[in-house]
Amino acid sequence: MEQNPPFDLDALLVFGKVVESRSLSKAALLLGMPKSTVSRKLTKLESDLGIKLLRKNTHQLTVTDLGEKVYSHAVNILTEANGVRALVEGSRQEPQGELKVAIPVFVGIDYASRVGATFLQRYPHSRLDIRLVDNMVDPIKDGFDVVFGTGPLQDSTLIARKVFSLELFLCASPHFVGQLTEPLIDPTQLNSLPFIDFGFAGPHKLTVVNRKRRHELSPQVRARANNFQVCKQYILQGLGIGAMPTQIICTDELRDGSIVPVLPEWRPEALDVHMIYPFELSFSTLISAFYEVACEIIVENTART
């Protein structure tokens, strides 16, 4: 392994701030260093790499195509570097301070409370403010240190670390299945049946997979809720077919037969849940500690079921 990179890692941080703020002056302010130092570090980085990263004139600053690619790699490099820093600092110092966290209601009160209690017991010098939310929030705009969310990131200044995946299965009540005019054998049949939609991320198409085969469906949504418990009650009442987390909140119903799987060879795409936080906090030992607890509790929950 090469001992030293052919450029200054600190200059990558400076470059990243300039790209994000599109201004040398703003980047200098955020970094707490003179504008001349920012300019000198950028010039040195371009010289070390042998490429032009930025175009500057009196009115605006733009990033070259190659500069955009360097920036995307720089974010990953700095994230890993900050991860190492957090690991080292965490071994020297107990996490302390306040953490404000937003957790979607669909993740569950039981999970949120167990993560919170374990975190507070393990780190007595920490303070925790957990808010259960019913819509997607932005950690920067909405004033959170950490949010749990699904789907791709819309902001390159945010970091997303996967906590767990919710494996889903299609199901209905025996009464609903018994009233169908024909047996369910093909996923396209779902397009003409009432569907109970989990709607935390808003309206979306239903994609089901069977090994390498996949179908994108547009079922008739009879009801939508951003909570799996509500969706489960709709399904139990025979109001339609829905997608539920595998054996997490339907364990008893699957055992007593009040909910039955349908099209078992076809499964909705898993719902990945990430812990999202600003890039500036990627070195926080408090956030790293909370992430470890969040992963630990989901493993325990899976084992319990």
From TrEMBL:
A molecular function GO annotation: sequence-specific DNA binding
Keyword Transport annotated: no
Protein keywords: DNA-binding, Transcription, Transcription regulation
Single biological process term from Gene Ontology: DNA-templated transcription
SUPFAM superfamilies, sorted: Periplasmic binding protein-like II, Winged helix' DNA-binding domain
Chain ranges of the HTH lysR-type domain: 7-64
Domain of life: Bacteria
Family (UniProt): Belongs to the LysR transcriptional regulatory family.
UniProt-listed PANTHER family: HTH-TYPE TRANSCRIPTIONAL REGULATOR, TRANSCRIPTIONAL REGULATOR-RELATED
Protein name: LysR family transcriptional regulator
Organism: Mycolicibacterium moriokaense
